[in-house]
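Dear support,

I submitted the protein below through the web form. The confirmation email said the job was done, but the results page showed an empty box. After a refresh the structure appeared. I'm attaching both so you can tell me whether what I see now is the final result or a partial one.
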Amino acid sequence: DLDEAALSLKTLRDADVPVLWRPYHEMNGNWFWWGNKQNYAKLWDLMYDRFVHVHHLNNLLWVWSPNAPNAYSTPYSLSFPGINRVDVLAADIYNNDYRSSYYTELLKLAQGKPMGIGESDILPSAKVLQNQPAWAYAMTWGKELSATNSQAAIRHFMNQNNIITRDLLHESLR
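What the results page shows now:
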């Protein structure tokens, strides 16, 4: 299966398309087959080594994205594959649970690498973004953007001074 996925990723590599590659997300919970396994780092290493050293996929930005360490998941450190095997660290945060402890724990592990909100339902507030300024990006999960956020909340989020939308990014590249 890894080799088949690598074939598709090679087409993106050959087209000079970078990919935020976020495999085995929320590994610190028990709702996926790879979750809460003591050998999780070995699973990550297996994919990493195969994709990087065998398939030469140099277009992947490796995003390690655990669930926020709440009542349903374990602390980040128990499943961290190591700073040399990740490019971006992200947290999956649901129910508006943007605790500062989740952020600071991830910030310590990141050692200066970019951090993102890998998945969420409710967009972070302006106050959250002010108190947690290292978030480089935020992604809501599928239909959750409009299912859990009002149009006014989405507009407010997108119009904050510290948010760069696709349109603003294209303008800055001109």
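Response: this is the final, complete result; the empty box was a page-load delay. The chain has seven helices and five strands.
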